[in-house]
Structure formats: structure tokens, C-alpha cells
Amino acid sequence: VVQLTNKTNAQPFNAEDEKIFQVFINYCSLIVHFYNMQQNKIYYDNLKKVYSDIIKLHLSPCRHDMDEIMETNGIVLPPNNFKSFDYHISEGSKEDMPGLVCYMFVDTFADRNFERQNLAEFALTILQCYRNNPYHNAEHAFCFTHTIYLILASNCGYFDFVETAALMIAGLCHDLDHPGYNNNFLSLSKHPLAQMYKSSMLEYHHYFLAKKIIEVPCTV
Question: Alpha-carbon distance 64 to 67, whole Å?
Fold first, then answer.
């Protein structure tokens, strides 16, 4: 509330004074509104940082899983038919998927000295971010990455390091946190992802989560 009681020259307020005062009030209102917006922005920026730290915490793999995979130095040696398109991971070997993912990365980038523990943590983090869907699950991501691995192995020299890394990482991350529904269903059901993105909702979400995981400090 802004109130004027009198003028310094003791003259009564006139119509022009009222117009000037109205403009002044409008500017004061804008200043207060802008200040409140800035305070809200500061609050939500900090809230975003808090939530981001929580996400990073819960994305970290279980310590028992890390200890288990590091017993074999972060990789699992593959079966004899692993370098064949006919290979498919058996039901009883699915616990080996993180170690086999690490093997594919180490084999593909044989000239790179990966920090095995960080590579294992990366593989475990990615695979645990897949939901237990009938199709878009961790096994699907593993099989897709295996196909990319074989294609790259038989086409050495056609892709540089960045392109090869992009293909391997994209193959592993391409369906991260897939809810089991398609974009059309998300749009019709007014899912939060559909409110965030006007098209390709799932693709944007997969990319966002993959980027969030990759941004976690590590030396893979």
C-alpha cells in the first residue's frame, strides 16, 4: 500500500498528480513482482540442485553389486559364441550383463585404459535404470548394445573414437527408464512427460536421463 498525505507546496492534488502517482504505483508493482519472481527462481534453482543430488544418490549402484563385479576386475569373460549375431544371453546368465557390457567397452576401445571400477559403476547404473518391462528392459538394452558392438567390430576404421563411443553409449542408453507405453499413450493420458515435451516425449526422457548419468563425475 502506498499513501500520499500532502504536497510540499501545500497545494491540493490535481488530475496530473493522480496520473503521475498511478504511473509510479505501476512501476512499484512491477518492481515488487520482479523481486518475488527472483526469489522464486532462487528457491527453485536450489531445490533443483537438492533434487539433482538425490537423483545422483539413488542412481548409484548397490555396493554389493560393485564388490561382486570387481571380483573379476570389472569384466566377465564372454562365452565362445559371443561374437556372433546368433548369440543371446540366457536366462541364467543375466546377472553377467554388467560385466559383459564392460567387456564390450574394453574390447571396443582396446587402446584406451579405462578405470575398471568407474566403467563397472557406469554399466551397473545404466542397466538398473531400466524398468522390468516385457520388452523395453535391461536385456533389450544389452542385446541392442551387443549388436552395435558386433557391427563396430566388423567395420573397424570407418568410425573415429567419438563416433564409436557415441554409438556404444547410445545403444546402451537408448531406452532408459522406458515406462512401457508409447508416446501416443503418454500424450492421450496427459502424462507429465507429454506436458514437458510436445513430441518425442520418450526420446527426450531417455536423452535427459543418459545425460544426467554421464554428467556424474567419473573418469571412465
Answer: 5
Report the candidate in 128, 109, 61 with the shortest Cα–Cα distance to residue 220: 109
Please list the active-site residues. Answer: 136
Q: Is residue 93 very low, low, confident or very high in pLDDT (cuts 50, 70, 90)?
A: confident
**Of how many residues is the chain composed?**
220
Please measure the distance between the N-terminal and C-terminal CA atoms of the chain and give it in whole angstroms. Answer: 59
pLDDT band at 217 (very low <50, low <70, confident <90, very high): low
Q: Which of 126, 87, 121, 119 is nearest to 103 (CA)?
A: 119
| Confidence class for position 218, pLDDT limits 50, 70, 90 | low
Q: Three cell numbers at 172?
A: 546402451
User: Taking phi first (over 0 means left), then psi (-120 to 50 degrees means alpha), and beta for anything else, what does residue 200 get?
Assistant: left
- pTM here? 0.79
Fold of 60-214: Catalytic domain of cyclic nucleotide phosphodiesterase 4b2b (1.10.1300)
Binding residue ranges for Zn(2+):
140, 174-175
